[in-house]
Amino acid sequence: MAAGGVCTLAPREAPGCSSSTSAFANNFRSSTDIVELSVGGVRMTTTKQVLGLVKGSLLADLLEAQHEDACIYLDFDPALFGRVLTFLRLCRIATPDCPAPLPSIQPEDRSAYRRLISKLGLDTFMFGRPEERSSEGDIFGIISGGGNPDRLEDRGLVKIELSSSAGVSPAWRQEALGPIGLHGLALENQYGSFSSSLRIRFLKHRVRVEAMEFRIKRNDLARMSDSWDFLHGDACIPMSHHFAHFTTTTGRLVVPSGADAFVDKVEWRFPRDFCIEHVVLHGLVLEAA
């Protein structure tokens, strides 16, 4: 069922909504403001506090228009909507030290999920203001804010950390994050030094990475690891790509589900050497609080 569905207020006999409830349930509803939903024919139950959490959203507007004895019918994908509803419930009990994690969405469902969030009017609440985020662009280009994306370290926006360093000097390594990247030089470890890791800290933003791209230094391609662990917050995500001499770029590698939180650092851990001329990250960006 498409995410961009329609919403109506229906009587209790709407699909998925029971027309009879016990006296206990009626008392419970009146004391806790329970609301019944039918989402694509699947019954769900929540509270007015949850539906009205985000003022100006479609859910809050429907709650305002709800008749006393009406079930709210939503023509949305019930599985995706259920993830959103769980997130809103968690927001009700979240604290600054323990914020509600964003839903974990499979890569093939992310497009429909984004449309659903937009239809519900929850974009800003979940992802920040439009100028602070992008679902398609280069994360490093976004955080540059129109400035020089080659000099993000100089501007105090990121910090690049390597387990050991060879090749390009620290003054130039930030160019690997720019629109063109390095050529003939690379972010690389001292060959034979293990463990081999590359970490990028975001000093003024938090990011959620959805995809990445690497371009590898051709002369040292034989040394490049074909697999790595991608550390994104608490998630450790195995990834791999087979590099060949005639194709030194990975193309867009979608990050499997697990990288769901907004984080201030990401890290790659390689089982052997790495030699990366260009790094591109795609995903969402929020300004740090």
Can you describe what's shown?
Residues 8-29 and 130-135 have low confidence and may be disordered. Strand 10 (227-232) and strand 11 (235-240) form a beta hairpin. This protein has helices at 23-32, 48-51, 58-65, 78-93, 110-120, 123-127, 139-143, and strands at 7-11, 34-39, 42-47, 70-74, 158-162, 166-167, 187-188, 196-202, 205-216, 227-232, 235-240, 253-254, 265-270, 275-287. The protein has a 5-stranded antiparallel β-sheet with strand order 5-8-13-10-11, with no helix packed on it. The chain is of the alpha+beta class and 289 residues long. The protein starts with 6 loop residues before the first strand and ends with a strand. The radius of gyration is 23 Å and the shape is elongated. The chain is built from 7 helices and 14 strands.
